[in-house]
Amino acid sequence: MDKPYTGGCACGAIRYSISGEPLFSNHCQCRDCQRESGSGHGSYLTFARAGVTVTGEAKQWDMVADSGNVKTRAFCSVCGLPVYMTFAAMPDIFTIRAASLDEPARYKPQVVTYAARGHGWDHLDPGLPKFETMPPA
């Protein structure tokens, strides 16, 4: 069996373990991710929900994505670190923030999404494919 992806928030109140490999890994330059990260983008790994175990209780808040679908962002109520996201329209997936990994070097971005909203000062790997919004499914 492959080594699980593990991680959590900065204070340890929320922990996760995920079996399997990511379905998708991206840097997202949408305004929501910029605001949440306090940077020019957010970096994410998306997995099948079936392989995910979470301990600890996250605070959650919903927002409406450009698609019109609701995404729920989860963060630690103690240290404030954003940890994961779920999507009402795609209940079988679970997305974590790359920075929340115990071993962040395991993150290998595949693409840049919402590049149309990127800033010139946010220099990402120029070899990554860029999509103006989200790539087609």
TrEMBL record:
Keyword Zinc appears in the UniProt entry: yes
Signal peptide residues on this chain, from the entry's feature table: none
Domain CENP-V/GFA: 5-122
GO molecular function, one term: metal ion binding
Gene3D superfamilies assigned to the protein according to its UniProt record, in alphabetical order: glutathione-dependent formaldehyde- activating enzyme (gfa)
Top-level taxonomic group: Bacteria
Keywords, alphabetical: Lyase, Metal-binding, Zinc
Protein name, UniProt field: Aldehyde-activating protein
Organism encoding this protein: Bradyrhizobium centrolobii
